[in-house]
């Protein structure tokens, strides 16, 4: 499913305006159906956001790594490709921030 342009632009502007708005990352997670396989706290098909945040806790390159993973649809441990996120870089960063803040 594609995000319509006004929404993408609006969330881009929100993402630029800083962490006061927690919205764009969460909206994107919903729009991209991440919740089919992930929830904040429980393991579904994929790991919970909390366990991902735990795994990357204290790693300086965590957000860069996850950004690339989601942008390019990185390899999973069973060698399948993870879902690629079709969104602006700023939106993907906002999404990564939501995941990493879920601890
Ligand atoms: C079809 C199921 C599925 C969907 C949809 C999905 N994921 Fe995942 N995701 C997985 C699985 C399975 C893993 C575990 C990968 C592995 O085994 O290495 C994973 C892993 C991850 C990780 C951890 C990567 C790491 O390096 O540990 C993040 C972050 C993540 N997903 C974010 C997302 C986001 C954000 C979305 C929505 C855009 C999403 N996923 C949609 C199944 C899914």
At a glance:
It is built from 5 helices and no strands. The chain is mainly alpha-helical and 103 residues long. Helix 1 crosses helix 5 (89-100).
Report the bound ligands by name, code or SMILES.
Answer: heme C
Average of per-residue pLDDT values: 84
User: Overall 3D geometry?
Assistant: globular
What is the distance, rounded to the nearest whole angstrom, between the alpha carbons of the first and last residues? 29 Å
Radius of gyration: 13 Å
Instruction: Estimate nothing, just give the exact number of structural domains.
Output: 1
Structural class: mainly alpha
**CATH homology superfamily:** Cytochrome c-like domain
Beta-strand portion reads under 5%
- Main β-sheet description: none
The CATH top-level class label: Mainly Alpha
Question: What's the CATH topology label?
Answer: Cytochrome Bc1 Complex, Chain D, domain 2
Q: Give the low-pLDDT segments.
A: 16-21
> What is the CATH architecture annotation?
Orthogonal Bundle
Helix content: 40-55%
Number of strands: 0
The helix tally amounts to: 5
Compressed to H and E, one letter per element, the order equals HHHHH
